[in-house]
Amino acid sequence: MSLWKYSNPSKFLTTSERILPWVWTLAAICLIGGLVWGFFFTPDDYRMGSTVKIFYLHVPAALMAINAWLMMLIASLIWLIRRHHVSALAARAAAPVGAAMTVIALVTGAIWGQPMWGTWWVWDPRLTSFLILFLFYLGYIALWSAIEDPDTAADLTSITCLVGSVFALLSRYAVNFWNQGLHQGASMSLDKEQNVANVFWFPAVTCIAGFVLLFVALVLYRTGTEIRARRMRALLARERAVA
Amino acid sequence: MMPDLGKYADTVLWSYVAAVVVLGAVVAMTFWRGRRVRAELAEVEARVAGKAGTNG
Question: Shortest CA distance to B30 belongs to which of A139, A141, A224, A232?
Answer without folding.
Answer: A224
